[in-house]
Design goal:
The chain has about 270 residues and is mainly alpha-helical. It folds into 2 domains: about 60 residues, no CATH class; about 130 residues. The protein has 7 helices and 2 strands. It has a two-stranded antiparallel sheet with strand order 1-2. Helix 4 runs antiparallel to helix 5. The longest helix is centred in the C-terminal third of the chain and has 103 residues.
Length: about 270
């Protein structure tokens, strides 16, 4: 026959009173920190200033509407390529008239008086030879006048044809200005977008702070509680108890108690 019981002993070791007081104060302070309301961090983005806004607007207007000078140049270039000036030189007629007028005046002031003087010296205005010379001179005058007109108009035409060829070579450069204006508009848009993106990033940072704030407050309080609990530990141990047989042998029981125990173990 054997029997016995185990005894459980619990010992509580606590920190000294002055440590307990400090722990209670620490826990109270942690609770105060944990209960502090949320305050967003300061805004770290700077928006565009008045000069930038004005510059952006100017760039946008120029990019969308173009330059008046460039528009006039485009119009002239297009007109030149289309041959608009081949027969439309407003000064050409004046140039022809002036050149022909100089020839006519020279004829009237020099050639014709000489012919008349020859007629006078011959004593007859019906001299067939002199008349033929006069007719030849008149024809030469007409030919000269015609040549002047043809030459000047031909030179003007040739010059305008040359201008057309030059305009054709310049056309790609003029057309590329549209891409330059569009690129300026794109750069202005990218700069404006960057300011908007900075503001969006700031708002996102604030949102993250607000989401993490409750957890951070709980961590403050939880760490404080853990620190205080660490200063006070409870230890539990179990030790074997005294067996029934040992109690009987020791004679510590009465006859009635022994009989009762024997009856219990006999069951």
């Amino acid at each position: 026959m054997s029997g016995g019981s185990q005894q459980t002993q619990t010992s509580i070791s606590s920190a000294p009173p002055w440590v307990q007081d400090a722990g209670a104060d620490y826990l109270g302070r942690a609770r105060d920190v944990a209960n502090v309301g949320y305050t967003p961090s300061p805004n770290q983005t700077v928006g565009p200033n008045a000069a930038q806004n004005t510059a952006w607007q100017a760039v946008q207007n120029r990019a969308l509407n173009g330059s008046p000078v460039q528009s006039a140049a485009n119009s002239t270039l297009t007109n030149t390529i289309n041959g608009g000036f081949l027969g439309g030189n407003p000064y050409l007629d004046s140039m022809v008239d002036k050149a022909q007028g100089d020839v006519v005046r020279n004829y009237n002031n020099v050639v014709r008086p000489g012919q008349d003087a020859a007629m006078i010296r011959s004593g007859s205005f019906g001299n067939s030879g002199l008349q033929q010379q006069t007719q030849d001179s008149d024809k030469t005058l007409q030919d000269s006048l015609g040549n002047i007109s043809t030459q000047l108009r031909g030179q003007n035409y040739a010059q305008e044809r040359q201008n057309q060829q030059s305009a054709l070579s310049m056309a790609p450069t003029f057309a590329n200005q549209d891409y330059t204006d569009a690129n300026q508009l794109l750069q202005a848009g990218n700069q404006q977008q960057q300011f908007s993106q900075n503001a969006a990033n700031q708002n996102y940072n604030w949102w993250q702070e607000a989401q993490q704030y409750p957890t951070s407050r709980l961590n403050v309080l939880g760490n404080a509680i853990g620190t205080v609990q660490g200063n006070s530990r409870t230890q539990t141990s179990t030790t074997p108890g005294t067996s029934t047989a040992a109690s009987i042998v020791g004679g510590g029981l009465t006859a009635a108690q022994i009989g009762s125990l024997l009856g219990m173990f006999g069951k």
